[in-house]
Each structure stands twice: as structure tokens, then as C-alpha cells.
Amino acid sequence: MTDPARPLRRRRAALWGAAAAAVAAVALVLAWSGRSAGPWDADPGTFEVHRLAATARTVPQSGLEAALAADDSDSPWLLSLNGTWDFTWSPSLEDAPADFWEPSVDTSDWGTVEVPHQWQARRVRQRVRWRHRLPQRGAPLAG
Length: 143
What we know:
Elements: H1 6-32, H2 39-42, H3 64-69, E1 83-87, E2 111-115
Antiparallel strand pairs: 1-2
């Protein structure tokens, strides 16, 4: 007894095989076309691009005892910005309240935001939009 679905399975397998061969051919053509992904594929020693040099966090202390205690909150030269801040959203700098940085500005109709703050975890009235397209995978890096 023959299976009526057998020719369909064969056609389907042949179609998947042809599709895989086409994808492999396109990948090989792109790999051999000389397109560069930037400094990453040109130099195996490259492990960072457009990055500031690494530094250690240092906080000046008032004396040896304070430095040995390793408690940064006691430093007279460290000001934490953590806390509740007044916040209002403006679509552009031109639409922002005049002299918004001055302590005398009336912020009674503004909202508040906790700092540190992660925008992705909170909903803001306006959706965040990028003015510039982000670089795509394999695109050469600017600069």
C-alpha cells in the first residue's frame, strides 16, 4: 500500500533543501564580496571601538580613617543626586520653560521623578524616539 502523502513530503523536503542552498549561497556571496564590518574583522586584536578608557571610581576623603572605612557617603566632596526631582517633559528645548534650571522657577504643576531613573521601566507621556537611525549590524562605524 502506498502512502498518498509521500509525493507531497518529497516536494516539501526538496523545497526546504533548495531554500537552504539559496541562503547558503547568498551568505557566501556576501562573505566574499569584500564588504567589511569595520575594524572588527580587519584586526583580530580589536576589542573596543569608540570607547573611553577604563578608569577606577575614586572619591576623595577627608582623612586616612575615612579612606580606610571605605564609606563614600562621608566624603565632603561627594554630592549624591539620588532622590526626588521635579520633572516636566518638553518635546524640544524651545518648548521647555524659560530658565528651568533656576531655583526660582515655579514647578508646582510639574510632576516628580525618582533618581536614579530608568525610562524604559516607567511610562512617559511621549514615546522616546531617536533622531538618528541606529547603526545596523554589519554597517561600517562612523568616525
